[in-house]
Amino acid sequence: MEDKELRESLHPLERKVLLVLHDHDSVEDTAARAGMQPVEVMRAFQWLQNKDVLSIHEELREEISLGTNGEAYKHQGLPERRLLNALTSQPLPVSELLEKAKLTMEEVHAILGILRQRNALALSKKEELLLMLTPTGEKTRATKLPEEKILGREFPFDIRELTAEEKSVVETLKRRKDIVKVDLVKRKRAVLTALGKRLIADKNVRQLETVDRVTKDMLLSKSWKDTIFRRYDVSIDVPKIYGGKKHHYRRFLDDVRIKFLSLGFTEMEGPIVETDFYNMDALFMPQFHSARDIHDAYYVKEPKYFPLDQKLVTKVKDAHEMGGGTGSKGWQYAFDVQRTHRTLLRTQGTAVSAHMLASPDIKIPGKYFGITRVFRADVIDATHNVDFYQTEGIVVEEKLTLRHLIGLLKLFAQEFSNTSEIRIVPGYFPFTEPSCELYAKHPDLGWVELGGAGIFRPELVKPLLGREISVLAWGLGIDRLGMFKLGIKDIRALFSHDLHFLRTVGLG
Amino acid sequence: MPTIQCSFTDLKDLYGKKCSLDELRQWLPAAKAELEHYDEKTDTLTIKLGDTNQPYLWSVEGITRFLRHYQGNERGIPRIKMMKTKNIISVDPKLHSIRPVIAAFIAKGKPFTNYLLKQFIQMQEKIADGFGRRRQKVAIGMYPSSKISFPLRYYAADPEKTSFVPLDGTKENLRRILAYHPKGKEYAWILQDAKQYPLLEDARRQIISFPPITNAEDTGRINIGDSSIFFEATGTDHAAVNLVTTIFAYAFAERGFSLQQVSVKYHDKTENTPLLKEEAVAITPEQVAAYLGIQLKKSEIKTLLERAQYDVLEKVKIPPYRGDILHPVDVIEDIGIMYGYDKIEPLPLTTSTVGAALPKIREIEKCRELLLGLGYQEVLSPVLSNKELLCDKMNTPDTGIVEIENFMSQTYSAVRTWILPVLLEMLSKNKHVDYPQRVFEQGIVTRRVGDMCNDEEHLAVVYCNTIADYTEMKQVMDYLFSMLGARCSITSAEHPALIPGRVGDILVNRRKVGFLGELSPHVLEKLDITMPAVCMELNLSVLFSLAKNS
Question: Which domains, ranges and CATH numbers included, belong to chain B?
Answer without folding.
Answer: 3-70 (3.30.56.10), 82-273 (3.50.40.10), 280-343 (3.30.56.10), 359-549 (3.30.930.10)
